[in-house]
Structure prediction request, 85 residues.
Amino acid sequence: MNKTVYILQKFKDSQEFHLFEGKIDDENNICSSKTGKSICGKVKLDANAKCEFVCEDEDHSRYKCYLLEKKVCGTCVSHLYGKFE
Ligand SMILES: [Zn+2]
Prediction:
């Protein structure tokens, strides 16, 4: 299993959500951020803060970001609509 998953976290300062690429540890079934940095590169994942969602696949992430509308960082969201690789 090697599909891309995403984590969404809200940042208090800007009241904005940023998206992180996640990875799932199959053995322990734990999800964590791949790089610790948001896709836009602006923020780091805060381990102490609550996440809006953790390790959703691309389709679910897109839908949930859509529901949050403009509160999600535009650069991060565009990643879900562009095809990389
Ligand atoms: Zn962002």
User: Anything to note?
Assistant: Residues 58-68 form the longest helix (11 residues). The helical segments are 58-68, 74-81. Residues 18, 38-40, 42, 73, 75-76 surround zinc ion (CB under 6 Å).
